[in-house]
Write the structure tokens for this entry.
Amino acid sequence: MKNEKIVLGQFFTKDKLWLKPHIINFINDSHCSLAYDPFAGNGDLLFATIDNTFVREAMGLDIDKSLKWQYNDSLIKIPHIENAIIITNPPYLSSYSASRKGLKEKVNIYFNSSIYDDLYFIALDKMLEAQDYVVAIVPETFINSSYRQKKRLVSITVLEDNPFTDTECPVVVLCFDDKPKDLASILIYKNDKLVCNLEAVEKQRLFPKNNVPITFNSKNGWLAIKCVDGVNKDDFIRFDFKKNMNYDWDNNIKVSSRLFTLVNLDVKPSNRKELVVKCNSILSDLRKASFDLVLSPFKGNSKSGIRRRRLDYLTARAIIEKAYELSIKGECYEQH
């Protein structure tokens, strides 16, 4: 670990591609005179803001004493600055990752006093407490989180191009002001394009009813799921028979498997194809209606530049249950 920023999961933003036209408008419309980064690092976000917006002054803080900024642990407290807009890339590090990397003792001071399991949520709370206007680059998994101050959002921008030099972490740009809103008023962009609002995404979520006996990661399962998009054209998440997927099921299916799985559920062989077709149809409709945003991002993009996605098991279960109800209607469920 070179310095405390790396220990705390900080990534360095080099490319100004995050600064989309609607984000520039948000910064300008705030009428703030100072760009303020409490996790300033090399200052790239501050320099990009001054070069591309009406803001002409900048101030940074950082926990790394070797940098030029004033020292401050901004995960503990961020000082309020009059007429300032925070523009930052806070540290990302989950409690689980900290334990796995042997860093838990270094970050326990933050997690022990928080309800959150990732440093960037803690950072967001501190920023929104300090200032009315905040622009933050955070992991895209934020969209599927239960973060408690989402109603202060103005927009969420999915960046399919990578603004980092040192990670492929899929990210979004969040713009907050001081006014609580309904979810329909919170806009979602993909890169430069407005695609929907947050309410539209939330309405598409599927939740399992647990009304059909289903076992994941079963070596005796007949229903195969490729749970992550590939990089090649047409290599998407899909449901199929295991014989149709080129995968070593016997050696690779474990309790911890998340990228491929075999699912066991009692369906007559004569009805299984219908269930597979219906599962894929429901999945396709879900992806289109939610602009893919109900599915978690996966590292990197496809060769065509589209963000890869991962299907979680809760959503997969809900899809299977819905397909079962729509296509099978209980007639092929075999009691044993």
